[in-house]
Amino acid sequence: MKETIIRRIDEESITNRIREMAQDINRDYEGKKLHMACVLKGAVYFACELSKHLTMPVSIDFMSLSSYGDGMTSQGVITLNQDLTQNIAGKDVLLVEDIIDSGRTLFYVENMLMKREPASFEVCTLLDKKARREADVDIRYVGFEIEDYFAVGYGLDYAQKYRNLPYIGELQFKED
Ligand code: IMP
Ligand code: MG
């Protein structure tokens, strides 16, 4: 099978939208410090771009989770590969994700992090595949709501490939 990528969201639209999201966050967190908790690896590109447009004092930490293997469907089991390095108690935490699909990963992370008693907890995602939602999760900031296609680029991968594409594409498989 040959992998083909159809362009869906170009780089300029992504960066413009990220600037708009940053403005919303700047308004909502005025006078506060923001602690970004970024989910590796996919959300790194988005989190870095977003952070450049934030005007409050910002700190950033990373955690790694697995819910997908090298395939395209969730394994249903979420594993914490690497936890945050800093304590989040009393902090205004913004969880940064690349995409929310079933919402199961987010549900797991939120339950885990809420036990650590942050001052506040909100979620920011570049992409939202809302139609596929299974878990009851609340997302404060959404970049783009997308249809049910497999997205790659701007941090999102298929079998660790395509993260470095500057745009969001739809991955399709064609017969050789
Ligand atoms: P969820 O637990 O079903 O919401 O899945 C969340 C995780 O699955 C995301 O953080 C991604 O790592 C991965 N994922 C879900 N949909 C896609 C996609 O379309 N492209 C790439 N990764 C995806
Ligand atoms: Mg992810």
Q: List the quaternary state of the chains.
A: single chain
Overall pLDDT? 95
User: How many helix segments?
Assistant: 3
Largest sheet: 6 strands, mixed
Rounded to the nearest angstrom, the radius of gyration is 16 Å
What is the share of helical residues? 10-25%
Question: What would you call the shape?
Answer: globular
| Adjacency order of strands in the biggest sheet | 4-3-2-5-6-7
Regions with pLDDT < 50 over 5+ consecutive residues? none
Which H/E pattern describes the elements?
EHEHEEEHEEEE
Kindly state the number of beta strands. Answer: 9
By secondary-structure content and strand pairing, the structural class works out as alpha/beta
Strand content: 25-35%
Measured distance between first and last alpha carbons: 5 Å
Small molecules held by this entry: inosinic acid, magnesium ion
Q: Could you explain how this protein is built, in words?
A:
The protein is α/β, with parallel strands linked by helices and 176 residues long. Helix content is 21%, strand content 34%. It has 3 helices and 9 strands. Helix 1 crosses helix 2. The radius of gyration is 16 Å and the shape is globular. Bound molecules: inosinic acid and magnesium ion. Residues 39, 42, 97-98 line the site of magnesium ion (MG).
